[in-house]
Design goal:
Structural class: alpha/beta
Shape: globular
Helix content: 40-55%
Largest sheet: 7 strands, parallel
Number of helices: 8
Radius of gyration: 17 Å
Order of helices and strands: EHEHEHEHEHEHHHE
Number of strands: 7
């Protein structure tokens, strides 16, 4: 029960990494607020938590909208009276050469991957300040650490998340609020399916070619790292980058 009596907000909690993390948090004793643009998948995550005796709430949420974030903050306080953990997980992925990126695509991805993280910190971290304690985990990527063809748009968004995390960590350290980023490589989710489709390589080949450990990451690989950062075990960790990439960026 590493998160006993803690309240966590997880964006994009209906599928993939977000869902796996929500299930793990609930298993470890947290009350979990699931937010997602997809109401059906978000409600299913809540049901999966409740059937195992956990406590969860779903809020339909477009992370790029400030009014939606205000509602998430208000509804969480009404339901659970506090917020201890924020996992800014929601994001989208586009692979395209620079010259083929439409401005509309650029703005849409940035509004979710960057503005969504900013708004989450803006509206949730002040609630943590009131209790002089909290942990924020922002989902970046190895694309925010190193370059790759076709990743100018996505990499720019994840590089922004990386630096915003460090800035926020310095700004809020004196208030007891920790802010860290995670940097996964390809994880076996819909994003890896998309990468496989774009590149023409199977997921097995992507895992073998890109990662020294010889496989794609799993959602559990990421969720376990997020759990550590959410828990008091990481009480002296802030402004840090946690790379979950099977060794890819060590090359």
């Amino acid at each position: 029960m590493r998160l006993e009596n803690k309240v966590a907000i997880i964006t994009g909690g209906g599928t993939g990494i977000g869902k796996e993390t929500a299930l793990l948090f609930a298993k470890e004793g947290a009350k979990v607020v699931i937010t997602d643009i997809n109401q059906e998948s978000g409600n299913q995550t809540v049901k999966d938590i409740q059937v195992n005796g956990g406590e969860a709430l779903f809020i339909r949420h477009d992370v790029s909208k400030e009014d939606d974030w205000k509602k998430v903050a208000d509804d969480t306080i009404k339901a659970f009276e506090k917020v201890d953990i924020l996992f800014n997980n929601a994001g989208i992925y586009i692979i395209k050469p620079v010259a083929e990126i439409e401005l509309e695509e650029w703005n849409r991805l940035m509004s979710i991957n960057v503005t969504g993280v900013f708004l989450g910190m803006k509206h949730i971290m002040p609630l943590m300040v009131k209790q002089n304690n909290g942990s924020v985990i922002n989902a970046s990527s190895i694309a925010g650490l190193s370059g790759a063809p076709g990743h100018v748009l996505y990499g720019a968004s994840k590089g922004a998340v990386r630096i915003m995390t460090k800035d926020a960590a310095m700004e809020y350290a004196s208030f007891g609020v920790r802010v860290n980023s995670i940097h996964p490589g390809y994880i076996d989710t819909g994003m890896a399916d998309y990468a496989s489709e774009i590149t023409g390589d199977s997921k097995e080949k992507l895992g073998h070619d890109l990662f020294p450990l010889g496989r794609l990451g799993t959602v559990n690989d990421v969720a376990n790292t997020v759990l550590f950062l959410a828990s008091d075990e990481s009480a002296f960790t802030t402004g840090a980058e946690f790379v979950i990439d099977g060794g890819a960026t060590a090359r």
